[in-house]
Amino acid sequence: MTTTATVLAKIGSFSENDCRLFEQKSQARNLPKGDFVLRPGEVCRSVYYILAGDFLQYNYYDEIELNVLDLHLTCEWFADYGSFIWQKPSQNFVQAYSDSQIWELSVENLHQLISLSPAFFQLGKILESSTSRLHFFDNRMTPTQKYQFILDHKPQLLQKFPLKIIASYLKISPETLSRVRESLAKGKIIS
Predict the structure, then answer these.
(1) Which runs of consecutive H residues, i.e. helices, occur in the chain?
(2) Taking all residues of the chain, what is their mean pLDDT, rounded to a whole number?
(3) Which of 33, 62, 72, 128 could connect to 55 by a Cys-Cys bridge, CB 3.0–4.6 Å?
(4) 4-132: CATH homologous superfamily?
């Protein structure tokens, strides 16, 4: 079972009192597969820690084509960064991809925690992780480099999400992803 101390230790150094304060200000929630924590037009007013389950953050290129922005796994923090920071309506969906359990920390409670203990300034690292994907999957990377990053850093994604979603996340076509996987399996490198 994940404890508050374990979750917070991934961010920084927190006292026992800090852990108790965090427990008082955060809320545990269970979400069935398909439930949303955010929809377009809503403001992201919380950050979330996934105790169990997986989440999909996406919007649509058009009325049909899915644009996967991020994939979130158990033991990760997430938020819609832009909406949370600027407190403006989101353009994205954030949806439970499987039955999930999360800890939710509202922006108001985050501010209260910071006012109670300077240790909670470390929670800013949560937001850094919300932008990390943007640094990895830009147009300078080849499809092979993008897929290799997944293999090296988040191979669990391949067990949790279908290849069509992985392809959208990597910003490549499903056909290109299939070619990359086949080439890597044969020991060839394609760009």
Answers:
(1) 4-9, 16-25, 81-86, 107-116, 124-130, 132-136, 143-153, 156-160, 163-170, 174-185
(2) 89
(3) 72
(4) Jelly Rolls (2.60.120.10)
